[in-house]
């Protein structure tokens, strides 16, 4: 799937859901979009996105992130009640990221983290987990995996562009997911290294719902 097709699909998904919304009390909006350029980390207080390593993520780079919540709370008063009583949507969350202007031909480990971006790379806290690992930091593949966390690893092309998408069968707990962190290396999957991806080179604030 090309980037353009993926974005078109994400937007079309949004459009069709919006059209299906009857004129009743509006449930929480199920979409979040963020489009930003990376600022120096010192500007973290006011910046939407910051870089901690300008050789991999220069300040000329930009990022687009979309979140779509499907089913569950936000959809209760929508299709289901309108005649087709048995119609049910799968509950879940779709997250899409597109990046441009990064280091070329480089594999970045990317995940949803719990805290907002800050002046320090560690400000963004640990990964968001649907089922929290009682042992933190979590490196157990039973918890640190792309079904229990949102992973969006990207390999940039020779022009420094790349994109990724993730679908999980759950939704973020309100107010517990605040950022997308870009790491220097590919995300590990083996015991003791699961979810680890090396230094945090950039961070994007996203008000996940
Ligand atoms: Cu991470």
Give a structural overview.
With 209 residues, the chain is mostly beta strands. It has a single domain (3-205), classed as Superoxide dismutase, copper/zinc binding domain (Immunoglobulin-like). The protein has one helix at 3-20; strands spanning 31-40, 49-51, 62-70, 92-100, 107-113, 154-155, 162-168, 179-183, 200-205. A nine-stranded mixed beta sheet has the order 6-5-8-9-2-1-3-4-7, covered by helices on one side. It is globular, with a radius of gyration of 18 Å. Mean pLDDT is 86; it is low at 10-23 and 79-86. The structure holds copper (II) ion (CU). Residues 111, 113, 127, 181, 183, 197 line the site of copper (II) ion.
Shape: globular
CATH fold-level name: Immunoglobulin-like
Q: Strand pairing plus helix content: what structural class?
A: mainly beta
Number of helices: 1
Protein name: Superoxide dismutase family protein
Family: Belongs to the Cu-Zn superoxide dismutase family.
GO molecular function: metal ion binding
Domain Superoxide dismutase copper/zinc binding: 93-205
Keyword list:
binds copper (II) ion, metal ion binding, SOD-like_Cu/Zn_dom_sf, Immunoglobulin-like, nine-stranded mixed sheet, 209 residues, mainly beta, Superoxide dismutase family protein, signal, SOD_Cu_Zn_dom, 1 helix
In short:
By secondary structure, the chain is mainly beta.
Which helices and strands appear, and what pairs or packs with what?
Elements: H1 3-20, E1 31-40, E2 49-51, E3 62-70, E4 92-100, E5 107-113, E6 154-155, E7 162-168, E8 179-183, E9 200-205
Parallel strand pairs: 1-2
Antiparallel strand pairs: 1-3, 2-9, 3-4, 4-7, 5-6, 5-8, 8-9
Bound molecules: copper (II) ion.
The site of copper (II) ion has 6 residues, from strand 5 and strand 8.
